[in-house]
Write a structure and sequence with these properties.
The chain is an alpha+beta fold. 47% of the residues lie in helices and 11% in strands. The protein is globular, with a radius of gyration of 19 Å. It binds a DNA duplex through α6, α10, α13 and α14.
DNA sequence: CGGCAGGCGGTTA
DNA sequence: TAACCGCCTGCC
């Protein structure tokens, strides 16, 4: 069983709700006590932030993981080494609307997520809504992922802060795993998904996305696994174009994967929300996606992904 | 009931 | 290359 560790960070330009509720990730949930819980990199964690101090309590990825490795993982995942003040000043210069968007989502950070997780997450996300995306992903993990054994006492902090009969947020109608169980589930490896049939995934309610998931897993294996794919994408000139090779991955999903899973911060995913935002804010016709991409390239450049996050969060609040 | 939700793949003009 | 359609599912 994994160890439990607690680390703290001093943070600025950082707000957990903006980070976990801006559509970039699907496995983090707000708990009634105000903390956020979720899983990343095979580690379960609970986060709280107050007055610029972030506290993370979580399980280690393995029994022999050092505190330094544990700390380093979350530092990287939360992108704590980046100066977001600089990005905001750059994006906001000469753009009053962008400054309003930045104010709305001032604490956003772009998470450095696992490539494979972003691939299957955003394939599932197509033509879908966030609660159902979350439910689908949890169902896939529960059925086909690895189990993480979490010491039960880790849950007590949250329990004692809140009424027992509270309506805990769960996945897909299921009770929240951290009050019901000490078992949590990781994203299944490509090898596992590649061997499934569409029928195997019936219980996950993926609909027509199920075969996409299986075929993409098979394509990853054909390329030698996720590591070679990642190495290739990280040095690719146009990773978005390369990603559309995979089943169920079009321009929008590919942009999300490039941005959140490959660290391509110039990627500018355009979905229906972004089309509305670009119309409302920059008066570009909603069906002119190419024009929007060009605008983003010209005006946001290497910070396109950050601009997209601020605009998206801003638009959802309107 | 139709419409829609953070699209994609395939066909058509 | 742009426009259109069908698609699983769940919710309004």
């Amino acid at each position: 069983m994994a160890d439990v560790m607690t680390v703290t960070f001093e943070v600025k330009d950082f707000h957990l709700a903006h980070i976990f509720d801006c559509g970039q990730c699907f496995r983090w949930n707000l708990q009634p006590d105000g903390s956020w819980t979720g899983i990343a990199g095979g580690r379960w964690a609970r986060m709280t932030e107050q007055d610029g101090v972030l506290v993370i309590t979580g399980t280690t990825a393995s029994a022999d993981e050092s505190e330094e490795e544990f700390r380093s993982f979350w530092y990287d995942y939360l992108d704590l080494g980046r100066d977001y003040g600089k990005i905001k000043r750059s994006l906001g210069r000469g753009d009053a609307a962008m400054r309003r968007a930045i104010k709305a989502g001032e604490g956003i950070r772009i998470l450095n997520q696992d490539l494979w997780e972003t691939m299957i997450s955003f394939i599932i996300s197509q033509n879908n809504n966030i609660p159902r995306i979350k439910g689908c992903i949890e169902a896939v993990c529960r059925q086909f992922g690895e189990t993480i054994e979490v010491p039960v006492h880790i849950f007590d902090t949250v329990r004692q802060d809140s009424p027992q009969d509270h309506d805990w947020p769960g996945f897909d109608g299921q009770p929240s795993p951290f009050v019901e169980s000490e078992k949590l589930y990781t994203i299944p490896e490509p090898e596992v998904l590649a061997s499934l049939t569409r029928e195997d995934l019936d219980g996950c309610r993926l609909g027509y996305r199920a075969p996409y998931l299986i075929e993409t897993a098979q394509q990853v294996l054909e390329m030698g696994g996720i590591k070679p794919v990642e190495n290739h994408l990280r040095q690719a000139e146009d990773p978005v174009a390369e990603l559309t090779y995979f089943a169920g991955v079009g321009p929008k999903v590919a942009s999300c994967i490039a941005l959140f899973g490959v660290g391509r911060y110039d990627a500018f995913p355009i979905d229906v929300w972004m089309r509305r935002a670009m119309h409302t804010v920059y008066n570009i016709e909603e069906n002119r996606v190419g024009e929007m991409q060009a605008y983003a390239r010209e005006h946001f450049g290497k910070y396109g992904g950050f601009a997209q996050q601020y605009l998206f969060y801003y638009m959802r609040g309107l």
